Amino acid sequence: MLRFYYNAAPNPLKVALFLEESGLAYEGIAVDTKRGQQHEPAYLAINPNAKVPALVDGDVVVFDSNAILLYLAEKTGMFLPDESPVARGALLSWLMFIASGVGPFSGQAVHFRNFAPGDHPYARKRYTFEARRHWRIIEDRLGQGRYMMGDPYTILDMAIWGWAPRIPAMLGEDAMAEFPNIARLMAELDARPAAQRALTLKDRHAFKLEMDEDALRAMYPQIFAPDPA
């Protein structure tokens, strides 16, 4: 059985959606990052980057959410486009764009808007600008078809589904109005039974909710690190 290490953040949700859509048997193992469980030696042996999600499939270990999506899609043959080189090129390009651009800039925008101590106007401006720019590219892509790859529902849509609900947290309360195509996709995916099951993942464990000093130290240790010389 697959072992899926998760919390309630956007990246684990992507994988949870695939697992629920595919019907693969899995054991969900909570990693409470506000309690610092991602830094425990047993978990670092699975993911030395101390992030969630991670997946263990027998002797195979995969970490990083988009890598897990691709691994599971190739393992099952599900939620992939056709096998043409053109489709494969598009799938990989968009998957890496989400992994290297959408996710990181969205996360930094959320961080500097909501969690970073002190006042960082340039950081807020930079990450807000870049997050919005990346999401506009996704918005334009979704204006060309029902899903990221046109007609087929693929892992790209799952990868978007994890982060898109955080758009108001990164760009402002009314920001989703800028992205009607993304909002349309979110509404469609949210209505899927698999998505509704995936969203219950956070309720399977009593995750710590308080962002107290211990949680900040576990999640953002750079806050407490000495300034570089």
Automatic annotation (TrEMBL):
PANTHER family: DISULFIDE-BOND OXIDOREDUCTASE YFCG, GLUTATHIONE S-TRANSFERASE-RELATED. The keyword Secreted does not apply. Keywords: Transferase. It comes from the Bacteria. SUPFAM superfamilies: GST C-terminal domain-like, Thioredoxin-like. The keyword Transferase applies. It holds the Pfam family GST_N. One of its GO terms (molecular function) is transferase activity. Residues 84-209 form the GST C-terminal domain. This is Glutathione S-transferase family protein. Belongs to the GST superfamily. Residues 1-80 form the GST N-terminal domain.
